[in-house]
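Hi,

I'm pasting everything inline rather than attaching a file, because the server keeps stripping attachments. The sequence lines come first, and each chain or strand is labelled.
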Amino acid sequence: MHISEGVLSPPVLLAGGILSFIGLVFGLKNLKTEKIPEIAVLSSTFFVASLIHIPIGPTSAHLVLNGIIGLLLGWSAFPAIFLGLLLQALLFQFGGFTTLGVNTFAMAFPPVVLGYIFKKFLHKNKYFLTFSVSFLAGFLSIIFSAILIGTALYFTEKSFLPVIIALLSAHFPIAIIEGFITGFVVAYLLKVKPEVVI
Amino acid sequence: MRNIIFLLLILFIFTKMGFTHKINNFAYREGNQIKGEAYFADGSPCIKCKVEVYNEKGIKILETLTDEKGKYNFTINEKGSLRIKVIGGEGHLAEYKLEGLKEEKKEKKEIIKPEVSKVSQNEKLIPTLKLTDEEMKLAIKETVDEAVKEAIKPETEGIKNLLMEMKKDMDKVRLHDIIGGIGYILGIWGIIVILNFRKKAKL
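And the predicted assembly:
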């Protein structure tokens, strides 16, 4: 889910850049010093997760793990994901520098919103509820990110539905896998170290 | 916290198994023919991807598809530099700039066919080649060029393949890049912690 350099038109890039900048400012404003080590670890998790490539059917997609980041970090997901994407562009040429804004927004915004909504339902003593809510957060983050990427591509490829369908079908299995990962990790963390989640 | 680190370590082990969707694109000339290959970061081919060729002015001059091995080739008369785009869909794109050939001042003079002239003295027909020195040089040069090209073809082919393999290897995601990236991330957040504490100390 990295849009490469030279695919998008300047207005789309600019819009993505501005939206991501707002998210970054928000994220850095709300930063708690105690949370920073956690952000750093999740930031590197995101950085590495994109290298894990799961072949399913004709296409293959990679893990994103933005659902976990949104649920655990809230607005700080923006700087965490931004830094991960920046280094991916720098070291592996995944995505690109001009598309950094669009990519950051597409991957950070859905989990932040979903995390905000779902966080209320997380409860230490209700394992099943916590698991299912986290599963949904992980699952929907990928789906909405794919839709946002498809929307950004729409302005250049001019074919909305085929792109969206291709993106969704490629990411649907990933979304399920990420749902499970998010569910297990968050439920487990809540049990053994609740202060990380809340 | 320890669990997240544990998760990170597990992910780490997995990274050796697969890589993302970044496309690499590489092409070279062979006379009028241009051969190229497009492959993903893990070296697997980009099958049936759209290939677009643009000339120096940015005008699209050609469109083709890659084959099952991710290879493409086309013939072109354009001598200038070319930009070859491979589009993998879903926002993946790789561009390769192929340098233009140097404009050789090849005013191909038609080599004059041997004229048959009558030599009156012997009253026999003796074919003579009426070639100036320059034309002679050109004709020799052309023949030699062709012969040399033919002779070194097997070797150049081997070198090209080797280059391709090396390039593929270089484009792969390396473990030291991954470790370096994680180091950068932790370092940058460390700096943010320091700055935050300084701010608090001032207050």
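Chain B touches chain A at residues 1, 3-5, 7-8, 11-12, 14-15, 17-23, 41-42, 85, 89-95, 173, 177-178, 180-182, 184-186, 188-190, 192-193, 196-197, 200 (CB under 8 Å).

If the labels don't parse on your end, tell me and I'll reformat.
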